[in-house]
Amino acid sequence: MTFTNAPEYIRNLAPYVPGKPIEETQREFKIKHVVKLASNENPLGPSPKALALLRKKILDLHRYPDASAYHLKLALAETLKLPVNEIIIGNGSNEVIDMLIRAYCVPGDSIVTSKAAFLAYRICAQIQGVATLETALTPDLRTDLRDMAEAVRANDRVKMVFIANPNNPTGTYNTSSELKAFLKEMKKIRDGSVMVVFDYAYWEYVNAPDLPDPNQLMREYPNMTVLRTFSKIHGLAGLRVGYGVAPREIVQNLEKVRQPFNLNSPALAAAVESLKDVAHQKRSKKVNDAGMKFWTKELDRMGIPYWPSQGNFILIDCSKGLGKRGGDVYENCLRRGVIFRPVSNYGLMHALRISIGTKAENEIAIRALAAELPEDRRAAYFRKSGKKPMKRATASKAGRR
Q1: How far apart are CA 52 and CA 35, in angstroms?
Q2: Would you kindly state where each structural domain of the chain is located, as residue ranges?
Q3: Nearest alpha-carbon partner for 165 in 151, 153, 148, 150
Q4: Which of 17, 230, 287, 363 shows the smallest number of beta carbons within 10 Å?
Q5: Which fold has domain 8-45+279-385?
Q6: Given this structure, which CATH class describes domain 48-277?
Q7: What is the pLDDT of residues 268-323, one digit of tens each?
Q8: pLDDT digits over 345-378, tens only?
C-alpha cells in the first residue's frame, strides 16, 4: 500500500537536521569522550538555581502544567518592562515561528527571509503551504535589507518577513541605522501591513554597540514580533522554552492557535528561576567572550578566515583557510571526537560553524581543527603554540567548569 494523500508541499519537505548527538558519535566511532561544539548551547549548562527547582518540580508530574504560563509571563514582563498581554510563550521559539505562520498566512502566501537564515522559517512555512522567498546577502554575509524590501514590494502575497539579528549561522548583523531605514521603507509598502519578525535568539551575547535593542525597534514599526529563547544563554535547550514579544492584537491571535499545555511544568518553573539568576547569565556571557577571544586568536594564528560573530558561535572559511569543504573538515574532526556543524544545507559549502565551549573544550577542539592544516602550516602552528598535535580520536574529558 502506498500513501500519497499528503499535499505535495509536505512530500517535498526536507526535515530539519540538528547537530549530531554526542551519543551517536560515541557509538559510530567507538570514542568514549566527545566534545560537542555544534548546536550553540551554553557549555556551562542551566542556572544551578533552576536545576535545584527542577528536582522539586518533578514530584508534580502527575499534574497538568499552567496552560497560561502565568508566572513566566509575569517574570518576563517585569524583566522586559512590558505588559503581560504583549508576550506569547512557545515550546522553543520554533513554536512561535510556527504559530505566526499558521495565524497570519494561508496556502499560496509567501514569507521573505535571507539566504543562509535559520531553516525553521522555511520549514514552518512549507508545512502550511506557504512559499519562502530568499533574498541576497551582502559580500560580508549580512542580510541585504534593500533587496529584502524590494522582494516584499514586488510580491503582494508576502505576509511576513523574518530577520535574525545576529544571524545564525553567520554571526553577522545589521546595524540600528540600517534597520531603522528598512522599517521606514516597510511602512511605505502596503501601509505597513506586512509583519516584520526579528529573531533575537542570541541577543544576550551581543557586544556590538550599533546592534539595536529589540524594544527600540518595536517603537519604529508597530506590526512586529520579536522572538527570544531560553535555549542559549539560559542553557535550557533541552526543556524547549521560547517566547515572542508583540502588540496585544498579535498575541491574541497567536494564543488562538497555540496548543494547550504547550510547555511542561518543569520547563516553566526553570525558566522563571533562570530569568532571576542574573549572575549565571553574566558568567555565561563572560565565558563566551573569553572563548570567542581564544578562537579568533587561534584562527588568526592558523591563517583560517572567519566572519566576526555577535553570537556564541563563529563561522570559519574552510575553503580559503584549509583548501577543503566544510563538510570534509567536519567528518575528519568527528573521528577525532569533536563535533562541529557543517552548514552546506544553508548553501555555505565552504564553511563550518563552531560553537564556543568551555576553556577545556575549546583547547581540544582547536587541536582537532589544526590537524586539518597543510603539513607545513600544521607543524608550524603546533610548534609556535606549544599545543600537542591530535593524532587520533583522543578527546579527553572536558566537562563543565
Answers
A1: 26
A2: 8-45+279-385, 48-277
A3: 148
A4: 17
A5: Aspartate Aminotransferase, domain 1 (3.90.1150)
A6: alpha beta
A7: 999 999 999 999 999 999 999 999 999 999 999 999 999 999 999 999 999 999 99
A8: 999 999 999 999 999 999 999 999 999 999 999 9
